Amino acid sequence: MKISPSQVHTFSSVNLLRKPGIPEESTNSLKQGTEEQTETAKLKKRDQEVRSHEQAHIAAAGGLARGGATFSFQRGPDGKQYAIGGEVNIDTSPVSGNPQATIRKAQQIRAAALAPANPSAQDRAVAASASSLEAEAQREIQKEEQETPTAENERTTTPSYPPIDLFV
């Protein structure tokens, strides 16, 4: 049996969307509209994730945050700007002359870096740097403790003489 071209049907999303009597241009605009809606939904979701991520950093950083978050944007098919990336600047310098304060600060930096539900590679790198800062401050404290004798060490290093009883 020979099949004529008028009997062949191709099933695609375009053909399924087409209705008899509707021009193909209308079908293409429906398809384009659906693609734009999908793209817009993805951008809205990403925008929400990015803003939430950066807000978690700010909340955990407290006074260490230097200003608010800065974002990079992408324009969606609807003409609106959507955040697709962001960053928060945090003071990561040691506290000069105070290793105990540096340890506390390093712990807060690490907590801020790892605060979002899904820390980025950059977030993990900042957390690792904070751990190094904390370890360095701990070494500084140990060094100070070794160089500064305690009261007990002073008693053992000071020569002791037997008591002399004087009777007058």
Describe this structure in words.
This protein has 168 residues and is mostly helical. The protein has two domains: 27-91, no CATH class; 92-147. The chain is 55% helix and 8% strand. It has five helices and two strands. It has helices at 13-17, 24-61, 99-113, 121-147, 151-157, and strands at 70-75, 81-87. A two-stranded antiparallel ribbon has the order 1-2. β1 (70-75) and β2 (81-87) form a beta hairpin. α2 (24-61) packs antiparallel against α3 and α3 packs antiparallel against α4 (121-147). The longest helix has 38 residues, at 24-61. The protein starts with 12 loop residues before the first helix and ends in an 11-residue tail after the last helix. The model is unreliable at 1-19 (pLDDT under 50).
